[in-house]
Amino acid sequence: MRIGGVITAMVTPFDERGRLAEDEAVRLMRHLVAHGSDGLVLAGTTGEGPTLSDEEKLRLFGLAVEELGDRAMVIAGTGSNDTAHTVELTERATATGVDAVLVVTPYYNKPNRRGLLAHFRAAAAATDRPLVVYNIPSRSVVDLPNDLLAELAELPNVAAVKQARFEDVRPIDGMDLLAGNDDMLAEVLDMGGTGGILVASHLVGDEMRRMIDDPDRRRHIAHEIAGLVKAVNTVAPAPATIKSSLNLLGHSVGSPRLPLVPASDEEVDVIRAALERHGLLSTV
């Protein structure tokens, strides 16, 4: 399976008591697929995977498979810094019928090269679905150099890498390249990447889809959305900014779970202004 297009790393909606809001999650899935998303990542970083229980994650995966069917790719975030836990959740996610799994580099433990290879080999062996490697050294401390990615690409079902570092990004033979940061999408597409796992696509998914479909206007579109992309990725941690944005736009996704906190009043003002400048929120 080729992994590409606009894949939104979906926030996880919570109700006023901080519980999984299933109905709102389904509504958001429908909205995203109707506005440019070719697929969704559930229980990833933006989906607050670290504070979801396994049962909550599996419920999300099942809801997405049931709701989206073959209309969009469902990618389950199953990675952690515990290989045994990653294997177990990958097996259980596969049983729900997801299309692929996303496995992050093990954080905090800081494994060496042999440990990283062993971790991803174990995760890949736990499923018959495509596995997307998630390389994000800014959060996990460890980095997967390109020669190590090339070695992982030799595994039959390691299909893609979500590349969230900024230096030395390039395609790897046998592995689809996905932008892991919103502001990298145009550059990654220009070098032959297949798409991105994105956050701002909650708000400008149609525009990001056009960046793929219309290469001649790609850089122009990227420039047009740059202000909004910057706001939702820098004002506060992405789950908080995206949730604030969606709440302002009428999606009841609630607040993030601790240790993340909601955007402050001042931060919400910056987000609101960015939405207004982009024409997503009326100034009246």
The spatial strand order of the largest sheet comes to 1-2-3-4-5-6-7-8
User: H/E series, N to C?
Assistant: EHEHEHEHEHHEEHEHHHH
CATH third-level topology: TIM Barrel
The number of distinct helices, counting runs of at least 4 residues, comes to 11
The CATH homology group name: Aldolase class I
Low-confidence stretches: none
Strand pairing plus helix content: what structural class? Answer: alpha/beta
Calculate the terminal CA-CA distance, rounded to whole Å.
46 Å
Classify the oligomer: single chain
Question: What is the CATH architecture assignment?
Answer: Alpha-Beta Barrel
Would you report the number of β strands? 8
Briefly summarize what is shown.
This protein is an alpha/beta fold and 284 residues long.
Structure description:
The protein is of the alpha/beta class. It has one domain (5-213): Alpha-Beta Barrel (TIM Barrel). It contains 11 helices and 8 strands. The chain has helices at residues 22-34, 54-68, 83-96, 113-125, 137-140, 146-152, 185-190, 201-213, 218-234, 238-248, 265-277, and strands spanning 5-9, 39-42, 73-77, 100-104, 131-135, 158-163, 176-179, 195-198. It has an 8-stranded parallel beta barrel, surrounded by 5 helices. It is globular, with a radius of gyration of 18 Å. The model has no long low-confidence stretch (mean pLDDT 97).
